[in-house]
Amino acid sequence: MNTHSPAEAEDQDEDSGGSDLHLSEPDNPLGRPMPGGGWSESITELRDAYVVPPVESSFVQAAGLLAGDGSYCPQGALWRKWRPLTTEPAMPEGELPVLKGKWLWGGVLWAHFGHFLAESTTRLWALDKLGEAEGILYIPKRPAVGEEVRGFQLDFIRQMGTDLPVKVASEPMRVEHLVVPGPGFGLGEIIAGTQSYRDAIHARYGSDIPAEGGPKIYISRSLLGVQRGGLVGEERLEELLTAEGYEIYHPQKFSMAEQVARYKAATHVIAAEGSALHLFAMVARPDQKVAVVLRRQSSASNYIEQHLASFGGSEPLPVQALRRIWMPEGTKAKRMGLGELDFPAVEKLLAEGGFVSGTAGWPDMRKVEVRRLLGKRAGNLRPMNQRKKAQGGAAED
Fold this sequence. Notes:
The protein has 397 residues and is of the alpha/beta class.
């Protein structure tokens, strides 16, 4: 199952700062949702609600919920960091179809695997509080996707222990009874998850999937292709970790249930930083040792580490050991960068963390090897964050 579809998230927001006039008012839905509670753990019920999907494929979109009287329902917005990515839509015109019965508001449905996990599952904590209902209702992030529900999206929802139908509103509609939980998870401070969301994940997610597999696993990105960013030298890292007893695991080759089973069985997990770790975090435990091999400098990396720590109950080891980051010309999108591994530093950090023996003496890459790995793209890449000469670069030819 290829759950790692091309990235849809615009990097313009990746490390943006901002202000929130309502930051000190966690109960005010005009301010960002917070993990300590407030409107992020509230439930709002709307009668004869208007559901308005986006009409443009853009970063911030006019879309969301209006109450029966036409007033905006801010509790239904998608937030990222310090601002909402869905804003008050205009009242739809004309006669609208009516969705009968009670529905759970799921929010915005992302087709990108990591953003689905982080931003489309955030309201499922309310399943236990829903009672009898007709289904779960989303709007698409991309209008062109329409009403499509992808296999991995449905798999996750089913693994939350519900068989409720999932519907995507691709056109404006009215809903007889819409239950709107606050977002208990997301990108920003809310990445730690509210207590209600964490409790629901721990109690429900994958609870009927037994552990299966060996104790040591390396979660790889090497088969995803350099166009999605990655690690220069990851194949060599895999060879070195195989010698240390690790299974090289490519999650996109397996169903979500198989991934969950494998992650549950592991005692030592090393992973190239990426979306797969958001799924691992959902079933992580305090007794598991986790190391994250960073491939970029980005708030996205910090969010993955915070997700692991909050849900798994122990801090992951950040393996920050890059010689330099190679960026394609003409882009500042950090997800596109290729991190060049410093192998002696990687071995040292992993050994200090109790993941590898530290006795093998991992050799660094020579410049000719780096150029070979970069291949035809080398002429269109520029090095960034290069270490000082005194600290060394790739070994000379």
